[in-house]
């Protein structure tokens, strides 16, 4: 009996991983992308042109609308999402919320419930989503587990490393919780890479 090539199991594993990866629909050249979140989306710590949505627009060649609201909690974001979607009609939403919940020590279950309601609204409207995980305050800035749980539940792509990496480096921060211009560029590049990896570009 012929033996299988030694590399075949590795290839099969790689194929399985690739097939299980969530995908995004390819963005048309005239597609609108909505960046929805709090001060991390707004660009606190840099100017308007240095905020990650503005940098991302240049990187991907699409319109990226900045709907970041400094100080916003997930509950407040949940309240305003539908109106913003009606106004902007995006093909893709980059959702980055939860940091203010952590800073205010709100129950993680409430944060997850609010984000889940937003993701359900986006799914109902058939709008693609890239979820951006936010790190919890602490000695080691690791993304809160609720983001991976939601990404798995909704079969969504998740960018869960960039913000923790950025906020762990003093040279990329404007203060303890916000990136500076260089940090926002790193975030925009990570989101661009994630969009490419999951098929949107």
Automatic annotation (TrEMBL):
<feature type="signal peptide">
    <location>
        <begin position="1"/>
        <end position="28"/>
    </location>
</feature>
<protein>
    <submittedName>
        <fullName>Arylesterase</fullName>
    </submittedName>
</protein>
<keyword id="KW-0732">Signal</keyword>
<dbReference type="InterPro" id="IPR036514">
    <property type="entry name" value="SGNH_hydro_sf"/>
</dbReference>
<dbReference type="GO" id="GO:0004622">
    <property type="term" value="F:phosphatidylcholine lysophospholipase activity"/>
</dbReference>
<feature type="domain" description="SGNH hydrolase-type esterase">
    <location>
        <begin position="35"/>
        <end position="186"/>
    </location>
</feature>
<dbReference type="InterPro" id="IPR051532">
    <property type="entry name" value="Ester_Hydrolysis_Enzymes"/>
</dbReference>
<dbReference type="InterPro" id="IPR013830">
    <property type="entry name" value="SGNH_hydro"/>
</dbReference>
<dbReference type="Pfam" id="PF13472">
    <property type="entry name" value="Lipase_GDSL_2"/>
</dbReference>
């Amino acid at each position: 009996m012929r033996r299988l090539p030694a590399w075949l199991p590795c290839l099969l594993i790689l194929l399985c991983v690739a097939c299980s990866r969530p995908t995004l629909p390819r963005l048309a050249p005239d597609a609108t992308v909505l960046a929805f979140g709090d001060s991390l989306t707004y660009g606190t710590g840099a100017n308007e042109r240095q905020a990650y949505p503005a940098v991302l627009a240049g990187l991907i060649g699409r319109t990226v609308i900045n709907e970041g609201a400094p100080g916003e909690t997930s509950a407040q974001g949940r309240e305003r999402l539908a109106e913003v979607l009606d106004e902007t009609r995006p093909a893709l939403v980059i959702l980055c919320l939860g940091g203010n919940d952590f800073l205010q020590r709100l129950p993680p279950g409430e944060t997850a419930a609010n984000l889940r309601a937003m993701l359900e609204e986006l799914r109902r409207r058939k709008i693609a989503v890239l979820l951006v995980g936010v790190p919890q305050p602490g000695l080691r800035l690791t993304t809160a587990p609720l983001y991976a749980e939601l990404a798995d539940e909704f079969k969504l792509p998740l960018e869960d490393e960039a913000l923790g990496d950025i906020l762990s480096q003093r040279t990329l921060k404007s203060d303890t919780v916000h990136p500076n211009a260089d940090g926002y560029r790193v975030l925009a590049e990570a989101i661009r890479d994630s969009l490419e990896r999951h098929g949107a570009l």
